Amino acid sequence: MVKKLLWLIMVWVLVLHSGAAAALTRIKFSLVGMPGSPQNVVAEKFKELIEPASNGNINVQILYAQPPGSENEILHKIRVNTVQMGVVTGGALDKFDSIVRVINYPFLFKDNEQAHEIIDGPLGIKILKSLKRAGFKGLCFSENGFRNLTNNIHPVKSPGDIKGLKIRVMASALHIAVWKALGADPVPMPWPIYKELAMGAIDGQENTLWTMEVYKFYEIQKYMTLTRHVYSPHINVASLKWWKTLDEDTQDLIQRTIREAAVFQRKDNRSKNADQLARLSEKGMRIEFHPDLDAFRAKVAGLKNTDLYSEPRVLAMLIEMLNAAK
User: Fold this and answer.
1) Rounded to whole angstroms, how far apart are CA atoms 278 and 244?
2) Torsional sign, CA 230, 234, 235, 239
3) CATH code of the domain in which 185 resides
4) What pLDDT does 4 receive?
5) Which of 50, 136, 224, 294 could bridge 131 with an S-S bond, Cβ 3.0-4.6 Å?
């Protein structure tokens, strides 16, 4: 009887210990942005979904990077498992794995629907798997959006109008090369850039519609051109070091839930574009709706033959992607 009682106590202690350990599972999820930004939307949705799905055994802490433009710092923290998960722009990841330059290739996708179809398919999965080389578990793609040009000097309709403009770009070899090819003077600069735009240290920038509205660029940028030159995905990643410590059921739950959150965010992001464009126009931005996109495409067509894509695996992936997007 005593042995049986001791055995029951040991089983109960193990059950309690197991539950306590599970309850202590914490995910630090880091991002650049603010409430209402696409990064925040996917992070909040992930938290909303996974905490009840895990029966309270997983808790998500959303961290906002400081200073606000330090995506490189986020990625370094994820690699060493100081932070377990994060959402970053594709351009920030190309320092860690040049394969992401394939998705950011200029004028690659016709529209959001085509972009989603391709990045959710075999080619997108290949790119996510490739991130293991850099210490990341690639989870899925959420969305930043198509990038457009603004400036405070004059209207831009064709590449000739860009010549000499100082355009802020992210610290990405591809983004720098794109704007050099278009005739601009690209200036890599960390975020935020409102002050630099207001002071005239740079003439313009290129970004998504939500960014221009949320950061009030309509106050300091007169002209917008709907170039839609790059489809900018957000990539949701986890620390590979951390990921390998998780059991298969937990991995499956995280993968399934972040994917659901990303699909929700992409629909949310796309649904807002028309209203964002209307509000930017109402606030005084002069918008060029029909730039000479054929001329823009011609200027950047040679990028696939540069050193940016000289690595065989990257070039092979670019060719596959270009063929898929025809």
Assistant:
1) 46
2) positive
3) 3.40.190.170
4) 52
5) 136
β-partners of residue 205 are: 150, 168
Residues 37 and 139 in one domain: yes
Domain-embedded: residue 188: yes
**The 148-151 sheet, strands edge to edge:** 185-188, 166-169, 204-207, 148-151, 223-225, 286-288
Phi, psi (rounded to 5 degrees) for 67: -65, 170
- Give the pLDDT confidence of 66-114 residue by residue, as tens digits: 665 688 899 999 999 999 999 999 888 988 999 999 999 999 999 999 9
Looking at the fold, whether 225 and 240 belong to one and the same domain comes out as no
Q: What is the pTM of this model?
A: 0.87
**Beta carbons within 8 Å of 97's beta carbon, 6+ residues apart:** 130, 131, 133, 134, 136
Domain range for 310 is: 148-230+276-324
Task: Check if the beta carbon of residue 104 is closer than 8 Å to that of residue 246.
Answer: no
